[in-house]
TrEMBL record:
It comes from Lentzea alba. This is Amidohydrolase family protein. Pfam families: Amidohydro_1. GO terms for molecular function: hydrolase activity, acting on carbon-nitrogen (but not peptide) bonds. Gene3D superfamilies: Metal-dependent hydrolases, Urease, subunit C, domain 1. Residues 86-437 form the Amidohydrolase-related domain. Keywords: Hydrolase.
């Protein structure tokens, strides 16, 4: 959704990236992939071979990373001066309920997440979810997230699915759209996946949609929200379509996922993503590691909503078992779409705890959480060869983080700086598939005023309709 008049106005004051070749602001915001040379930054590649390069260049051409190294020369490239900046891969958020982004502030004391969701989920129109998903995508881009798993677990109608996909078309970020159930549907009724077939044919007949940025999956309720016969029907129908699946595993007793049973049924592997598996036993973790089944960890949610024990203990045991773990934000009414904050929370809590099975296990380090927030997430979504690291041949999902801002000064170790101190406010530039969507600290690929205005309109209508504690105050 590129409004060039708005972009030209906002970019007039956003030329914070100095360049030896001046690039017209509107040219960088028109959605066209160009040839760019990011020059002189500290490059945290998250590539095991390249590591951290204290000073290097990154060449981008037609959305692809062409070269990484010192003193690169690229005839015809637009120069992006990365002096005093850290260059790193864009973040990958592997579990985000984007349909409810505009309901981020519906919760209140005594009126927690699930109560707010029950009061409002049936009230979202197709227009509301378009506005919500686009709001979420713009927020993600602003925070340096370039890939997201849209866990669409309130797909109320074909029109709602179309609306979310239109938002992805306009949102310009890489994504998996995981078609899901209708929230609050009866537990004993299987999902109707007929419209998944329609969506697959209409949007994904070539495998991906929107110039290769979006691929299709299915998210399933799991046994925490459905009976065993209904869930078994759901998972067999999804796997029978050959689509990747995602399942809420359970943050609270009783344990709803039995990895040994899932393995016997052929349900585990790289195309099955489990989230919130706080209840996992050591044996479950061993099976996940052996089968290459990825895991999404939503640190704020695991602490706020989890009642199955200490999440720190579970995360350290997942790490010990070798389960591929990525980071996510869950819903915005639980946590912000801020991977810096997610990394910081995992780093601060990722320590062994005496008197628990985690005692004596290695603590989680800065490099560990950076991998969780980038390349691990890409692999969890089947995109490990596409994004998640600054590697020659991968797509150019790259962000630049200023290090001379007051909260990052006076600088220091680059990985430490990103995890310990950085925030979305420090994100200067964001490339999504080689297109600039944020520049000079300003979103340039979105009509932000319109997105916010539309989100307010939908939010007010939903709150007014829901009534009760959500009734807007009188003016």
């Amino acid at each position: 959704m590129i409004n060039r008049r708005t972009l030209a106005k906002s970019l007039g004051a956003a030329m914070a990236i100095s360049a030896t070749t001046t690039v017209p602001a509107t040219a960088e915001a028109d959605g066209v992939r160009r040839r760019y040379l990011i020059r002189g930054g500290a490059v945290v590649t998250v590539d095991q071979t390249l590591g951290v390069l204290p000073r290097a260049d990154v060449l981008i051409d037609n959305g692809r990373i062409e070269a990484v190294g010192r003193d690169l020369h690229a005839r015809g490239a637009k120069i992006v001066d990365a002096t005093d900046m850290i260059v790193m891969p864009g973040f990958v958020n592997t579990h985000h309920h984007m349909w409810s982004a505009l309901g981020r502030n519906f919760v209140a004391d005594g009126f927690p997440y699930f109560a707010a969701k029950r009061a409002t989920s049936t009230l979202y129109s197709a227009q509301d979810v378009y506005r919500s998903v686009l709001l979420g995508l713009a927020e993600l881009a602003n925070a340096g997230v370039t890939t997201v798993h849209n866990w669409s677990n309130n797909t109320r109608s074909p029109a709602h699915a179309d609306a979310e996909l239109r938002a992805h078309r306009d949102g310009l970020l890489r994504a998996r759209f995981s078609y899901g159930h209708v929230d609050q549907m009866p537990r004993d009724v299987p999902m109707d996946l007929t419209d998944v077939d329609r969506v697959r044919q209409q949007y994904f007949s070539g495998g991906t949609a929107f110039d290769g940025l979006v691929h299709l999956g299915v998210n399933l309720r799991g046994l925490s929200q459905s009976t065993e016969p209904a869930f078994f029907a759901d998972i067999e129908a999804a796997l029978g379509r050959g689509l990747p699946i995602a399942i809420h595993a359970g943050q609270a007793p009783p344990r709803t996922v039995d990895a040994a049973d899932y393995e016997r049924r052929g349900w585990l592997g790289p195309k099955t993503l489990l989230c919130h598996y706080v209840t996992a036993l050591d044996s479950d973790m061993e099976i996940m590691a052996r089968t290459g089944t990825p895991h999404s960890w939503s640190p704020h949610s695991e602490f706020r909503l989890g009642t199955a024990g200490d999440p720190r203990d579970a995360l350290l045991r997942f790490r010990k078992a070798g389960v591929p773990t990525s980071l996510s934000s869950d819903a915005t009414s639980i946590a912000p779409s801020d991977m810096f904050e997610a990394m910081r929370l995992v780093w601060n809590t990722g320590i062994p705890w005496q008197g628990t099975p985690s005692a004596g296990l290695p603590e989680i380090g800065f490099r560990d959480v950076l991998q969780m927030a980038t390349v691990n997430g890409a692999r969890a979504l089947g995109l490990g060869d596409v994004t998640g690291s600054i590697t020659v041949g991968k797509r150019a999902d790259v962000i630049l983080v200023r290090t001379n801002d007051i909260n990052l000064a006076p600088g220091g170790l680059f990985e430490t700086t990103l995890v310990q101190a950085a925030t979305p406010a420090n994100v200067d530039t964001v490339f999504s598939d080689g297109r600039i969507v944020k520049r000079g600290g300003k979103l340039v690929a979105y009509d932000v005023d319109r997105i916010v205005r539309d989100a307010r309109t939908s939010s007010l209508r939903i709150r007014t309709t829901a009534g009760g504690i959500l009734t807007p105050p009188a003016v």
